Amino acid sequence: MKFSRLVVQILLVVAVVTSFILSFFIWTNTARYQRGRNIDVSTSDVDKNKTPINQIISPTQVIWQDGKEQRLIYNNKDNISVSMQKIIKNWKVGAFSQEFSKDGAKYQKMIQRKNMIQLVYPTNISIRTLGYLMNNTTLQKATDHQFNRILFSVNDKDDDNIYLANDKTYTVYKASVKDASSKPIIKLAKKANIDLKIKLNLMKHGVVTFYTEPVTLKSYSYVLSTKADSEYTTNLFDSNTDDINSSTNGNVYTYNVGESKRLVSDHEKNELTFSDYTDTSVPKDMLSFFQRGYKQATNIQNSVSNLRLYEASWKNKSLVYREYVEGFPIFKKSEFGSIKISFSRNGSTESFLSKVLEVPVPSDMRNATLKPTTEIVKELNNIGYSPSEIQKLEVGYQWTNEEDNSDVIDLEPTYYIKIDDHWRSFESWSNMSAETSSSQNNSSSSSSSTSQSSNYATQSSSSEGE
């Protein structure tokens, strides 16, 4: 008995001594202990703040044909396109088969069918990508095809199929659906507080949403968040700051890690370009293409909740992301949107802006009323841009800086048109046409006293310069 009590006492002494020793090491070496804790916390925070992929790659338009007319609907308090996606996620979708392809007449009838809801992506994604976003294993194993519209009937007795449509090839795929009800879909549709009458028309370069009545939309103001170059080099370079070589040429700052990675920052334009010459593997399938694009985009801006995939070119292996307000894209002063990512055998390239929308603030601007789309197309035609030249046309928000506060920007709704691979506002195209017309008139008047041959040469030279 005495022996066992002695053993217990010895063990207690050892435990106390061990406790003091451990406490001593913790108290005298808190840096190491804290560093480990901080790594865990920061990693967790990044995961929590990261915008999920099914929000960045998501429909930006919901179109409802209620049996009478087509309407573009939106709810600024509840993203109904994302909510509808969640409902569809629980449907049992069968295998997709092709209904028809390259038939414009059939396609126009399909996208104008009565009692249909359409979820419209700004760009083509793929069936397997949709399966991944919806956690549908059947679709993840399906034959992969590209599409940008999901269509289904809101009349349960009318059609128990779901359709995928491709605006570029006028192709439609069909699959049967089980355990689907339109009631929760209609309930969401009726909650829309933005309701615009539209008509989907086929033009030379694809489907265009025509607003059949004047469109009145709110203007917005936002506080900007601007990141320093050092924040980007921390995210993009897997190196110590001592390994980064920097140089300056006017307002352009360049950061290099050997010959493997480079970041070029134009402080005047607030544009940055990151090149990773070690990233030479090109995505082999469309799902990995979208996954890698998402990973790199959120590595640049991990908490931009209004960022959406806007344009994807599987052929060129490039992706463009834009920020959205009330379901409409924001067009900034850059040609590439908010972020552009390209993959090639020579490495990957990321172009992006250092200014990001942060916090909405009260705006003193009035609501803007835009003309019906048919009038815009007519006016473009009158100033020299034929409908066949219009590659894309849509309502978007124009980004302008406030004169008295560089940290606040105004977002004004307007029409944006893509012609000759350039996005410009309707006002910009109109001004360019006016300037061209004025230049031609001046050239004609100044050369009226010259010979016919020299006048022809002068006009040719002027045209090439423009």
Automatic annotation (TrEMBL):
InterPro entries: YycH
Biased composition annotated in UniProt, kind: Low complexity: 436-466
Keywords associated with the record: Membrane, Transmembrane, Transmembrane helix
Pfam families: YycH
Domain of life: Bacteria
Identification of the protein by name: Regulatory protein YycH domain-containing protein
Residues in Regulatory protein YycH domain copies: 10-426
Transmembrane intervals: 6-27
Region feature Disordered, mapped onto this chain: 431-466
Keyword Membrane: yes
